[in-house]
């Protein structure tokens, strides 16, 4: 029995296996991800692209901003092709190595059949040795050595028996384990170089790379914003709970990303000493005399002046301040998202009573308003029509006449084609076509809200202290669908009449009826009614029962109808009737349903007590799948391109959605940043219902971060009922007198404002 032997690869052939596998592991994904690809744009999208002078110049600037792109692509292709050539060479060497290390067969080498006689073996050996001998012109040393070994294996009796028994003329050999490294690595004369290379790679290069990455990563937040900037946002938002728009713009311009000490990409020029003061003289109400740090620093004043010039659409020196404008404006959307998150976290801390002052809802909304202003290069008080190509301040007079007064893009899109062309008669045909392309691709969002208490026994009844889940359905369409159509108000009337008749159809441009997409109640909502998570419900109910009534409960009947002037807002509150799984009609959003109980549902709930555990498991699985889907959708940053010729980069349209109380100026839910609204999107917003029964009016808001005048708001009537009394058979939920006294001492005031309180004021 042979022993074991460890040895390095003497010939270097085994080393090819290691290099081949390692190179293939790197080369295949590198080719897939880094090979330069020519993007073939869709001809339909190219036809829809605006060809106004500002958009054309923007595309040229974007292409010129990467002057070394072609050289970089050439070297990337050269490196990838060289890697594949090396991979092919290694594969060839490995194939040759496999052929040379095949099984040793002496009969095959001598060209004889098995069982040949000694005379035939000697004759074949002499014949081939005359040709393969190294001294001959046709000699081959390796082939001659194999021939000699084969001849010895067949002429020597012991070698022949070893070959027949073990497959090796030398008998059983030692089991060798080869290390796929060439033997010169462990040679004494090369040890210094090998150790030096090892120290350079693993003790210098690798720690340096990891340390550099770590140092850079800890300086930024999740939105790739400097942590110093985030701390500055927290300080000023806490200092100014009610922040006006220009104050928010001033704080945005003081971001550390615009300071050369924090960002090496910032360029400071000698010409700034002349150009910046000249620009300041042209911009009134800039607030450059503010003494707060870092609002008074030169970089902050320069960035503020550039942003004001950008919003006023002023021309700047093309080689100096214009370059700075493109960089500063391109960084603003991410900074605004971080600013909104900071205000939202301060509001959460104020609710937790960790900070004394609560930022108002106007503060966070003013921060949101900065994004569409900067993307469109337009002040908020300017006309939204200036977002269209070729429209200037001088052309706004054409949109105001005795018959029509067009103030928004939606009103312009609703006009009939002939009337719209007559209104835009100052444009030629090419300019008019570009304007219609931009107007037609402008988003129009269908906004639907559904309010439920999912984890409660009766999801349609909102009790005091319950967790209210507001499901928001967003469906995006283009304004081209409104060209020549009836107005939105007439569409809503048609929609209500068709819903009253039990039809789901909508009038189209060609007069035909089309199936309208409706949002049906999912099956899991029916299951949520069957399950009985009573523990939390009873705890809240017992607290409400033990607490003395500090104010009278609101009546169960719905509030009185609003005056005729508010008829439009009342229509938005109405929700279409839907059918449950059993086929019963249910008005999801009406106040009648919120104030009534269904006896049939109670009976069916009593019959289904045997399947509560299964429903709980299904509910938990569904929640996990829903949260996973929301996380995956949140990572997507692709929706629809925005027409923004004054923004230096390509921009995708995003949205903010949140719920607030306008009467108390408070934010109820964290703003959800919707970044993947391609066609439809569904999101859930949760908040705690008021602690006191009553009728509350809340607002669900949708704000665009790319367009001015695209914001929507839908009022929600929340009829909060008193929590049910605790049954006598559950004494473990009874509260002691001390707990009742503690509840009486703290927090009798509600963070919401009811409609009755407003009327009394």
Task: Write up this protein.
- It is a multi-pass membrane protein.
- One of its GO terms (cellular component) is Sec62/Sec63 complex.
- β10 and β11 form a beta hairpin.
- Helix content is 47%, strand content 12%.
- It folds into 4 domains: 176 residues, Helix Hairpins (Orthogonal Bundle); 28 residues; 151 residues, Sec63 N-terminal domain-like domain (Sec63 N-terminal domain-like fold, Orthogonal Bundle), CATH 1.10.3380.10; 278 residues, C2 domain (Immunoglobulin-like), CATH 2.60.40.
- The strands form 5 sheets. Strands 4, 10, 11, 12, 14 and 15 form a 6-stranded mixed sheet that branches. A 3-stranded antiparallel sheet has the order 3-5-13, with no helix packed on it. Strands 1-2 form a two-stranded parallel sheet.
- α20 packs across α25.
- The chain is elongated and about 120 Å long.
- The protein has 27 helices and 15 strands.
- It has 761 residues and is an alpha+beta fold.
Brief characterization of the structure:
With 761 residues, this protein is α+β, with helices and mostly antiparallel strands. The protein has 27 helices and 15 strands.
Low-confidence stretches: 485-492, 501-611, 735-750
- Total DSSP E strands: 15
Largest sheet: 6 strands, mixed
Query: Can you give the helix content as a percent range?
Result: 40-55%
Using the 3D structure, state the CATH architecture of the largest domain: Sandwich
* Strand proportion: 5-15%
Instruction: State the name of the first-level CATH class of the largest domain.
Output: Mainly Beta
Could you tell me the CATH topology label of the largest domain: Immunoglobulin-like
Shape: elongated
Total of domains: 4
Mean pLDDT: 75
User: What is the number of helices?
Assistant: 27
The Rg value, from CA coordinates, equals 39 Å
CATH superfamily of the largest domain: C2 domain
Could you tell me how far the N terminus lies from the C terminus, measured between alpha carbons in angstroms?
A: 104 Å
The structural class is: alpha+beta
Biased composition (Basic residues): 527-540
Organism: Bombyx mandarina
Transmembrane segments: 15-35, 74-92, 192-215
Membrane topology: Multi-pass membrane protein
